[in-house]
Amino acid sequence: MDCYTANWNPLGDSAFYRKYELYSMDWDLKEELRDCLVAAAPYGGPIALLRNPWRKEKPASARPVLEIYSASGVPLASLLWKSGPVVSLGWSAEEELLCVQEDGVVLVYGLHGDFRRHFSMGNEVLQNRVLDARIFHTEFGSGVAILTGAHRFTLSANVGDLKLRRMPEVPGLQSAPSCWTTVCQDRVAHILLAVGPDLYLLDHAACSAVTPPGLAPGVSSFLQMAVSFTYRHLALFTDTGYIWMGTASLKEKLCEFNCNIRAPPKQMVWCSRPRSKERAVVVAWERRLMVDSYLVPELDGVRIFSRSTHEFLHEVPVASEEIFKIASMAPGALLLEAQKEYEKESQKADEYLREIQELGQLPQAVQQCIEAAGHEHWPDMQKSLLRAASFGKCFLDRFPPDSFVRMCRDLRVLNAVRDYHIGIPLTYSQYKQLTIQVLLDRLVLRRLYPLAIQICEYLRLPEVQGVSRILAHWACYKVQQKDVSDEDVARAINQKLGDTPGVSYSDIAARAYGCGRTELAIKLLEYEPRSGEQVPLLLKMKRSKLALSKAIESGDTDLVFTVLLHLKNELNRGDFFMTLRNQPMALSLYRQFCKHQELETLKDLYNQDDNHQELGSFHIRASYAAEERIEGRVAALQTAADAFYKAKNEFAAKATEDQMRLLRLQRRLEDELGGRFLDLSLHDTVTTLILSGQNKRAEQLARDFRIPDKRLWWLKLTALADLEDWEELEKFSKSKKSPIGYLPFVEICMKQHNKYEAKKYASRVGPEQKVKALLLVGDVAQAADVAIEHRNEAEMSLVLSHCTGATDGATADKIQRARAQAQKK
Q1: Could you tell me the pLDDT band of residue 741, with boundaries at 50, 70 and 90?
Q2: CA atoms in the 13 A half-sphere facing the CB of 298
Q3: Disulfide check for 116: which of 108, 405, 649, 774 has CB 3.0–4.6 Å away?
């Protein structure tokens, strides 16, 4: 135990700090760190170095090189810097490198040195140049703050959604502030700067002077300031050698310390862990405390790297302190000792175990060992603590195993990513804060696809969140390998992905198209089962005809319409129509569309196809839909008739000519008789004439249009009954023998509730319909006599069905007797 705590250093009354080596750095640096712009990403992120050739005291002899390393010093990228002078480097939350140039342009690079994009911080920054810059992180994303040569600040809180804010001017500021930083309060980014002995806080609306409470007297300048990882605390280094520590709101002082060094420090960062009551800062001076090193603040400590080593300094967690501090009698310490004695087969194991059980602290001891294992960096110590926890669990009846199993899984993942070749030295606290999904994203960014997939399978993550997502990223990277043929890449991707759920081949194809590999994108789309995903990308790639084929294969009419409208705008009219001729389904759908939206285009389609039948139908519809003048309508009908003749449809042509004659006749009738005749059917025209008393005209019209006698008699019968002109109806019935018989006369009269007139015609009805006519006028007895006389079983049954109760009882008996006699014979 004594040996294990040898690197523990007490700070204050109750806290210990320890520093352990993460990696031995084997990077081959050609420059000293002090001569470079350095940026290291938090959460065990990568390190970027750019030799600063723009320093006045050391003129450049060649273009600088931008180098990116993992936290273990493994090279990730190296590129010759060909752009303008760089003022500051920084990493975004997505591990993109932001390079702030002197002209206010920010260049964004990927982890492997691939250029992503650039943006400008505004014209004012361009005109006044950049003196200094800070990259900071908020809950909204990564931001950039700029100090210009005019001593004004410009800020964007989220580079992903760039919105520039020009901060208020500081009164009387004639030179650059001695130090400044960004502070996030109430979800808003502020600038805190020092001008001599004064501090100013800039927000979007005003510049406010602020004073740290309890500051030692005699301060004439602030030389350095540092805000904590969570933006809750602030440290100020003064020219008197004092370090003031308090809340970032400057409302509460935590402590003040005299370090007896008045020289401005090279770096000052906070070193504290979540939920700890201890607050500490780490201060580095040039060549005084640490030789050519760089500090990286983390959530729960500080990473310190130099040319040779990469170390981690942090406060010893409570569980570890309880177990490992000298002469500790904490339950976790006793359980660890008991397990070690058990391995030695010593009876002391039982004594330690009994002592813990007598105090009822065995569950607490197991939990302490599990928690301490999470905070240990070295696998051997993790195993020792987990063995102790497992040993203690054996003597507990109902200890839930979830925490133990979860810790074993988490540590296995952490040990895998901490490996030198991976180089992500996450602590347990950082891992929990970062989440497994973000860690997988960072492995994907490093192109460590096999490890990411192994972790997903080990943790049994859902495929859509785990393996499928990673395979999709791998495929998107694969399509960028331009030294491999399109066929080989497409085949390899399909063999690897297959029908993996959650993988979209269209997204991969879109990436291939973005890389200029159109043919590869088309091959990949062949594996996409959803036509709705294929077609939009094919249209974007200007493969409209292929998109049309895919849309037709899908059977989705909406998708076909989408492609047709795109083709219509893309091709000239002739090519568009020729394309449609080769796709009958598309042509049919487009015709349906034109019928409702573009009638002239529909006519052109029929003309091009020599479809005279449909062209004739089109002109007929057009004659009624568009034209109001009779001459225009007749002309349209004449065109339709000509088209029908060309289509060899004699019936349609004759019918169209008859309609033209009818229209002309209806116009003449309107002129001579008044009233409305236009657009009535032939039958309605005849009926209207009869209702108007124009019987001769109606008969002439019937002759002209060869209306059959039966139909004419029906029309006249119905019209005269509607007029209730019974006298004219009687004359009409006697004019000649009725071609429709006289039963219709009876039916029409009864429909008009005129039994008297109906009886007139009932007597004239032929024998085969006599019974039905008599029943219509209500003469059941006579109908029975006729049915008996005809000896017709169906007629007798019909009469019986009309007999009701006592009134027709005698008639019913009469029919029954007639039936009986007929059966005897």
Answers
A1: confident
A2: 28
A3: 108
Q: Cα 231 to the chain's mean position, in Å?
A: 33
The strand pairing partners of 417, in sequence order, are none
The pLDDT-based confidence of 767 (bands split at 50, 70, 90) is: confident
Print burial letters for 796-810: b (CB count within 10 Å at least 16), e (below 16).
Answer: beebbebbeeeebee
> pLDDT class for 1, splitting at 50, 70, 90?
very low
pLDDT for residue 419 is more than 70:
yes
SS3 168: coil
Which residue has 């991969």 as its token pair? 508
715 and 686 in contact (C-beta within 8 Å)?
Answer: yes
Q: Where would I find the H helices in 359-448?
A: 362-374, 379-393, 402-418, 428-434, 436-445
Mean pLDDT on 416-421? 95
Name 157's Cβ contacts closer than 8 Å, sequence gap at least 6: 138, 140, 141, 143, 163, 165, 188, 189
Report the pLDDT averaged over residues 437-443: 94
Residue with tokens 């909204």: 140
What's the pLDDT at 315?
93
DSSP code at position 34: G
Mean pLDDT, residues 353-382: 93
- Residue 629 Rama label (left phi>0; alpha psi -120 to 50; beta): beta
| Single-letter amino acid, residue 790 | H
pLDDT at 166: 92
Across the chain, what does the average pLDDT equal? 85
Tokens of 715: 């029309």
Question: What is the rounded (10 degree) CA torsion for 515, 481, 67, 40?
Answer: 80
pLDDT at position 181: 96
Tokens 């969140």, residue located: 465
Give the C-alpha separation, 624 to 601, whole Å: 18
CA distances from 8 to 99, 326, 524 (A): 38, 11, 58
**Encoding tokens for residue 481?**
């390998």
H or E element at residue 68: strand 65-69
Residue boundaries of the structural domains of the chain: 31-165
Determine the average pLDDT of the residues in 660-674.
76
465 C-beta neighbours (distance < 10 Å), count: 14
Residue 243 CA to its chain's centroid (Å):
50
With a pLDDT cut of 90, the percent of the chain lying above it is 40
For residue 181, give both structure tokens.
Answer: 């930083």
Least confident window among 64-78, 91-105, 735-749, 770-784 = 770-784
Residue 698 and residue 686 in contact, taking contact as beta carbons nearer than 8 Å: yes
- Exposure string over 133-147, b if 16+ CB within 10 A, otherwise e: bbbbbbeeebbbbbb
State the CB neighbour count (10 A cutoff) for residue 591: 16
- 3-class DSSP state for residue 21? strand
- H/E element, 704: helix 695-704
Kindly give the interhelix angle for 767-776 and 743-751, rounded to the nearest 10 degrees: 10
Domain topology for 31-165: Methylamine Dehydrogenase; Chain H (2.130.10)
Q: What is the dihedral of CA 322, 327, 330, 332, to 10 degrees?
A: 70
Token pair listed for 362: 């065995």
Q: What is the DSSP string of 531-580?
A: HHHHHHHHHHTT-HHHHHHHHHHHT-HHHHHHHHHHHHHHS-HHHHHHHH
Q: Is residue 562 within 8 Å of 543, Cβ to Cβ?
A: no
